[in-house]
Amino acid sequence: MIEWIIQSKESLKLIYAFIIILSCFVIVIKTNKLFKLSEHQGIRYFRNAFFFYGIGFFIRYFFDLKYFIFNKNYHVLTTFIFEYFLIMGGFFLLYSLLWKKIESAGEEYFTSLINSKVLVFYLMAFVIVGLDCIWKTFYFMFFSQIILFAILILISYNNYIAKGSKGKFLKFYLIAMIFSFIAWVLNFLAALTFAWNPGILITIYLLNIIIFLFFAAGVVRITK
Amino acid sequence: MPKKRERLEVIKDILRAIRETRSIKPTRLLYASNLSPQMFKEYINELISKKFINIDIDNKEKKTFSLTKKGQDFLQEYKIIEDFVDNFGL
Q: Residue B57: which H helix or E strand, with range?
């Protein structure tokens, strides 16, 4: 089985990316409609998170024409753009849960993607990607995402305890955050100790698919 | 002690109060919203800037609030919005 997976890994990667991009697309479309209706900032940042994830995966797996253009520099560029969008997705997800404590009532923003508070995240993501680029590694991204998802686990656990009966999806949100945390730890271990072991990578891909499908199903179910 | 209303709930209450009377004077809306004058002002400014309500001024300079189409749509879909915000901890 693992042999077959390894042999057809390029096609499976495309299917993997397609599932995630499709999930993000559904989430963005549905939440955008809800945001237009409510002007709720939390919905806006939640939508932005999946917008960034979707674009990131699209660039990494479809825009990266490494199957047609054998240019290593081009592949490195798309990898770091992917990293940037992935980090920003995580930051927006965090901010969607924290915005109420940070923003004051009636603050107006002229664009959906940039404001003075979120600008800090853009700069942080830029620094993280820059450091990875200079050191030719992914460890700065792995560290940042492990810390980020540890915080997200705490916040979603608090939300689940505080509002468990009111929001049935909060339990799945918490599970998704735990899976994300595990996926990033595995990513880190795969790079550091296991020389990108295919078994670990397959586990990461499966976890990611489950996480994105969780969110897509939750969004569709609530907004139907 | 009664539970503090969530922001979304306050907005719904204000919009509902306006819808019930079609157009309402600021003082009556302030009483109906059950907010402090300061908070009321903040919410009203936000609702005007987000185009959920209109402020109408008549010949005698008297102000009344009315609901926009966007405000009506918000009330109609309120349950879904509230569910979404609760379920994703937003």
A: strand B53-57
Mean pLDDT score across all residues of chain B? 90
Q: Compute how many other C-beta atoms are within 10 angstroms of the C-beta atom of residue A11.
A: 9
Q: Which residue has the tokens 């509002």?
A: A163
The answer on pLDDT for B57 being more than 80 is yes
Domains of chain A plus CATH, in order, are: 10-223 (1.20.1070)
The SS3 assignment for A196 reads coil
Interchain CB distance below 8 Å, A34 and B80: yes
Distance CA B2, CA A212 (A): 38
ipTM of the complex: 0.88
Is B35 within a domain?
yes
**Selection from A78, A115, A200, A97 nearest residue A158 by Cα:** A97
Contact between B7 and A100 using a beta-carbon 8 Å cutoff = yes
Q: Contact A43/B7, CB-based, under 8 Å?
A: no
Q: Residue A103 has what pLDDT?
A: 84
DSSP element (H, E) containing B24: strand B23-24
Residue B48 within a domain? yes
Q: How far apart are CA A37 and CA A31, in angstroms?
A: 10
B49: CATH: 1.10.10.10
Query: pLDDT class for A221, splitting at 50, 70, 90?
Result: very high
Q: What does the mean pLDDT of chain A come to?
A: 90
Please state, in angstroms and rounded to a whole number, the distance separating the CA atoms of residues A46 and A42: 6
Of B80, B84, B89, the CB nearest to A159: B89
Residues of A with Cβ-Cβ distance to B43 under 8 angstroms: 105-106
The answer to the question of residue B1 being in a domain is no
Query: A166 and B86: CB-CB below 8 Å?
Result: yes
Q: What is the C-alpha to C-alpha distance for residues B80 and B66, in angstroms, rounded to an integer? A: 23
**B32 vs A186: CA distance, rounded Å:** 55
The whole-angstrom separation of Cα A57 and Cα A62 is 8
In a domain, B29, yes or no: yes
Provide the shortest C-alpha distance from residue B34 to chain A (in Å): 17
